Amino acid sequence: MKEFQGRVVAPGTIEAKALVSHGGLNTLASFQKALQFGDKKATCGDQNNADLYGKQMAGKALCLPATIGSTTGGLVLYCACSMKRQPACMLFSEPIDSLAAAGAVLADVWLDDVTMPVVDSLGEEFLAYVKDDMTIRVRENGIVEVV
Amino acid sequence: MTAAVLHKDGHCRLLEDEKGGRNLNLTKEQQAILNGEKGDVLARVMKTLVRYGELFGADSMVPVTSRYNHLVTSFGLKALKPVYELMDKLIESGNLSKQQFSADPRPLDPKVPSSFLQDFIFKNFMYSSQEAYEEQLTKLGLMEKDAYTCTCYMDEVGNTPAMGEVLSWSESSAVVYANSVLGARCNRNSGIIDLMGSVLGYVPNFGLLTDEGRKATWIVKVETTKKPEAQLLGSAIGMKVMAEVPYIVGLDKWLGTELDDAAKTYLKDFGAATASNGAVGLYHVENLTPEAAADGKKLLSENAKVYVIDDAELQRVYESYPVIWKKKDVKPKLCFMGCPHMSLNQLIDWTKKLEEGLAKAGRSKVCIPTVFTASPAVLKKFEETPYAAKLKATGVITSYICPLMYMNNPLSEKMPVITSSNKLRTYTSARYYTDAEILEQLTKGGTD
Question: Fewest 10 Å CB contacts: which of B79, B80, B220, B424?
């Protein structure tokens, strides 16, 4: 078991299985088809992301460096949260980017019944250590346990 | 309250300031809004933007100074119902945009070839909210009924911010163009955040709004033996620098030192590729883009990383693109050009190239159904030129549609579509070819 200290972007605690993207998550490319066609698992549709393509994102502890791509990214994340198809939490090794930050803040401020803890700045070591299906525990203070 | 502080290890950490208060300073008026004195909805708008800004160490909320805004959401996608509900809250509470705005292209155009099944799905499932959403946009402050394009900054459209103006735009290709080519100041805002900035009239001051945030952390040396393909060069740089700011040297050799129509068109396509293949919000081209022309290498941060791009590197990037068609050698059924929307001179250039290519091949019509997309305003100008009839004679269809919105569904995904847009390649199953290869496909029915 290893612990990593990050910064709380959206508060909350959760335990979930890890899903790891070593490259940037293209939010629109990853979520659009899932949201459009009622895929409750939110299967990743981004052909350029070999780590995630075809894998379930909903309910997973999504571990990633940053998000990339279209500026619809934040609203796509907001919609995923509103439709209850969001990852269990999002854990960024880098300081959060503006699109992911928008999605996390919009969901936290405007959706009263949805929680998606978001922690950033966990460091490169976090992303090197964590592997798919490891158990992740997110604490309120931004500490992330990887088991 | 907390603020982000960048530590020596490059990571942000939570810190409270000495008084335990917020590091983002609000004026009395802004604080009153946050306290709910102008209603709960506007308080939430302020809270959203303040929290968003605090994450990036914003010190204040600064006025939006551009005449118009630009929004990324132009499509009545059923999947975005939560967005429309949020917009209804703004409208019902009287919190409309303080600026008029343009929006990204419409997702549907009857002129674009589609099957009966595609039409049925587009109209009854995917974009069934289109009409209602356009009504929402009109109520919120749309510039005019046809202000739908991703290239709002073109002269024909009229949403062209001036150097130094502060924007609350989204649309990655428009933001990177406004910052880099026009010298305006805008962060890579997400949809909804864009609108909230102009509802409030303020945006958090951080990142690309600040002098420090506009400094380059990469120096990119272009050392190719011929003019690099805009979409390929942009893709290579985007994938390398991700969200950082590149300072590009050696490109003025191919583009010149004046921002004429040809250079602006090149930079439009180049920038869109940097933004979609990475997350670039600003680039500087030495001796060409306004800040680089004025300040040169003073824009470089200390210890800027170096990326050299030569012919082999561009070839490596090109060959790295996955082709996800089931049958890789199948004949394309459609060609989309214009993501982002084409400029007037691009439409004219392509008309000339097609006429010449078809004449050489002994044909009069293109070999693959082809759609050129541009803004309604640019298409109107193009129709006034003799080239419109010439292009029509080649069989090419012109449209204001968003190719990306057309492609993003299981039916279109199965279609073998070709394009020279790296943005379209990134987000859909469309296959990328260089402009020269596209020309061959259209005029000869294949590439050598």
Answer: B79
